[in-house]
Design a protein that fits this description.
Length: 265
């Protein structure tokens, strides 16, 4: 493994990495991002990706780094002083490992659609967690509105823990138009509805819609959905976190599909 040391902020590679770390526009234009940590890099490799550049902080053990580098033998390896590494790391306590990587576009499964539709999710950790939930439940697609946080930001990637590598995503969608064209049942998760989510038949093509952490779903999206429903709560609390609500809903769909496979079409 040959590594190239970089010690200057004026180095073009360092400048490129810093831009990816800080700018959603740069990530969007290049279709590239930064992967933080060994776990994300391993998940990316497991999904069939090959990073463009591997970055190691000088204090990170080279022997521990070697097995990951061996899985991508044709990738450029650079070493940064800890001070420079910290400037591009997305966390307060850097892991010591970063990778510059292209966005992956996983193929859509052929199974009946189970789609998560997200409107204006602003918190990167929440967004990543919701994508992770969708991937864990076997969702076939995530549809993100224009107001959602960048799903390829380092913080969203940390929240997703590899979900972005395996779950097909449609970004910047007009949700009303998308829902109007969806050939299946679409259910908006809304607090003030009388319809009990648990009483619904969730077999067949299904889209579950979750809204902004504070404002919830827009009236236009609720109108475009097949129906709105609430998740019953026995406790004395006003609402669930958007990520928790989606997790409850999507795994209820999974539960029903396991019990009633004949409902699939």
């Amino acid at each position: 493994m040959t590594e190239t040391p970089i010690s200057s902020r004026d180095n073009p590679i360092f400048k490129r990495l810093k831009k990816l770390a800080e700018s959603a526009r740069a990530r969007r234009e290049a279709h590239m991002t930064l992967l933080d940590g060994e776990h994300l890099l391993a998940a990316y490799l497991d999904a069939g990706g090959q990073p463009h550049t591997l970055v190691r902080a000088v204090s990170f053990d080279a022997g521990r780094f070697a097995p990951l580098a061996a899985r991508c033998p044709h990738v450029k390896n650079i070493v940064l002083p800890d001070t420079l590494f910290a400037e591009i790391a997305p966390v307060a306590t850097p892991t010591g490992v970063l990778a510059e990587a292209a966005w992956l576009t996983p193929p859509a499964p052929r199974s009946p659609p189970l789609v998560i539709v997200l409107e204006d999710i602003q918190d990167p950790g929440n967004l990543g967690a919701m994508l992770r939930t969708g991937a864990a439940a076997g969702a076939t697609l995530a549809v993100l509105s224009k107001g959602c946080h960048d799903p390829w930001s380092p913080k969203a990637l940390r929240g997703g823990q590899g979900a972005q590598f395996v779950l097909p995503m449609q970004q910047g969608a007009d949700l009303v138009a998308w829902l109007n064209g969806f050939a299946g049942q679409s259910i908006a998760l809304a607090l003030d509805e009388d319809s009990d989510f648990y009483a619904l038949d969730l077999g067949g093509p299904l889209a579950l819609i979750a809204g902004n952490e504070g404002a919830g779903l827009s009236a236009a999206v609720c109108e475009a959905a097949t129906r709105c429903a609430h998740i019953p709560m026995a406790g004395r609390i006003e609402s669930l976190n958007a990520s928790a609500a989606l997790a409850v809903a999507v795994f209820e769909a999974v539960r029903q599909r396991r019990l009633k496979p004949k409902n699939r079409s």
